[in-house]
Amino acid sequence: MNREILRLALPNIITTLTVPLLGMVDLAIVGHMGSETYIGAIALGTMIFNMIYWNFGFLRMGTSGFTAQACGAGDREEAMHILFRALLIGLAAAGVLVLLQYPIRLLVFRLVEGSAGVEAVAAQYFHICIWAAPAILGLYAFKGWFIGMQNARLPMWIAIFMDVTNIALSLCFVFVFKMKIAGVALGTVLAQYAGLAAAVSCWLRNYRSDLRLFSWKAVCSREKMMAFFRVNADIFLRTLCLIAVFTFIPAAGARMGDDFLSANTLLMQFFTLFSYVMDGFAYAGESLVGKYVGAQNRERMRKAIRHLFGWGVLFSLLFSLVYALWGDGLLRLFTDNDGVVAFAGTYYFWVLMVPVVSFAAFLWDGILIGATASRLMRDSMFVATAVFFAVYFSARSAWGNHALWFAFLCFLALRGLLQSLLFHRALRKSGTLRFACLLLCCLCLPAAASAQRCTDRMVRKGAVLADTVTSLKVTRKSDTLGLFLQRFPNLRELDLSRLRLKTVPAEVFQLEKLRELNLSRNRINYMPPELGQLVQLRRLVINRNPIAYLPTTVGQLRHLEMIDAWNTLIIELPLEISALDTVLKTIDLRVVQLDDWQQERMQKLLPHTEILFSPSCGCGH
């Protein structure tokens, strides 16, 4: 049994890994075109097509389950008709996409806004690539069919051939024929049709003899079509929930701030990497369970489930161990930004739990697809999705970003548990399913029980990483800015410019080692006396703020060398600032409305300091 599982799982893992590789190559090609507009355009276009085609994943999954059952039953005639049924539906859907390409593009661009330049190039990319829809959906049908027929190698070779073709054509069109983004799009379209041609060729070579059994009446059978649509409708609704959750996660991070968005995007790569491996075993589950359901061999089906869960346990523990031992090194493979790595380290302990709590969801998806038990998938997904949003919104105010990750783990774990229980109920007294439920609980409950210990350990590790950060620029305002700054006690340079801040976060004044503070281009009208606590401060930038006065404690900043108060409302300086006369080198008060008397008074306070006034005032120093 293990040999059968690996025979099906390993080629599918390789097939899955080719998808992100192709995206990286396309990005590398447009990255050498000399403009970031092309990068933004292909990112936007790729996101649009991912949103579209992810919804058609049911075509592959439904085809796989029905085909595996027909294969197990030895019904090659029905297996062939399932393929043509899937191709008919896929080509019809592709035709609708092509016909509605303009309203689809307008709708998506309204929902996902980009700059005018990016949208113009992305539109060109979209209107070329949309013509690949018949090939892509046709390949979905062929891939599902081959997997159902217990043949995972053909989809692997087809995917490799298609990716190599895509890369070669895109390079040729872009760098030889100078077609720019149109060359990348055309290369993608032609490669998809080349892949479809390869799939048809492989099918004819291996299954041509089945054509003698072909019947359009059987393909269009009302009963068979209704069963196909019923299963696919359930999978479609399940996929919509999945999209809702995975779209919400980056959106929630973006609302909290760029730092949260960057950290969450970085950490989600660990889930994605694990998913590539588990998807391979899920595909193996589709093939084997479907075959044994079709053959009505319950004992072999139970054995397949036990062995699949054995592999799931092995790889979940292996990934958790690798993530635990080499977490910092893996984070730095994705970015060399110390601030992002340190901030991501604060939430890294959630990543350690992801493989353990999620492997069952992947495996049960494959098992239920093979058994065409789509209603169980749909119902468990509905409940898990509702729990995800309920947990996040109830815990968001207290836990912040931790609430998002806790909700995500609840979503993953609940899917596995509910599918275990529902399938167990469907099979009634099945020892195999009791074993699966017990195994899942034995893994998930200790993981949840150790969460607090893991939290403390990883937070300490995150603090150690944060201790190494000495320079930080915050690019977006968030409600948790103060908590975020607390994690970097050794900052020497802090840039909080352009955040529309109305007050200075109190946590800023706890950064005792701070030497440069940039608060420019905000809406701050008051500088609190806690400024005097920054005894190591050398540069203070407060330009373009409606600040009228500096606190008297500014005189305690005995290392302060420069104050940039350009375009503020400061009309006088505190007497205490005279203590800095021999240290303070420059004060920039240009574009500040000061009369001659005010300027003279300031010069008397700081006779050895260069004070810059507006030329329009008619005087300087």
Topology:
Elements lengths: L1 H29 L5 H19 L2 H16 L3 H24 L1 H11 L4 H14 L3 H16 L4 H24 L3 H28 L8 H4 L2 H35 L1 H37 L3 H28 L1 H8 L3 H9 L1 H23 L3 H26 L1 H27 L3 H19 L1 H17 L3 E3 L7 H5 L7 E3 L20 E3 L20 E3 L20 E3 L21 E3 L7 H10 L4 E3 L9
Parallel strand pairs: 1-2, 2-3, 3-4, 4-5, 5-6, 6-7
Helix pairs in contact: 1-2, 1-8, 1-12, 2-6, 3-4, 3-7, 3-11, 3-12, 4-7, 5-6, 6-9, 7-9, 8-9, 11-12, 11-17, 12-13, 12-15, 12-16, 13-16, 13-19, 15-20, 16-18, 16-19, 16-20, 17-18, 18-19
Keywords:
single chain, 621 residues, mainly alpha, Leucine-rich repeat, LRR (right-handed beta-alpha superhelix), 3 domains, seven-stranded parallel beta sheet, 22 helices, 69% helix, disordered C terminus
Outline of the structure:
Helices cover 69% and strands 3% of the residues. The chain has 621 residues and is mostly helical. Helix 3 packs antiparallel against helix 4 (76-99), helix 7 (133-148) runs parallel beside helix 9 and helix 12 (258-294) runs parallel beside helix 16 (348-370).
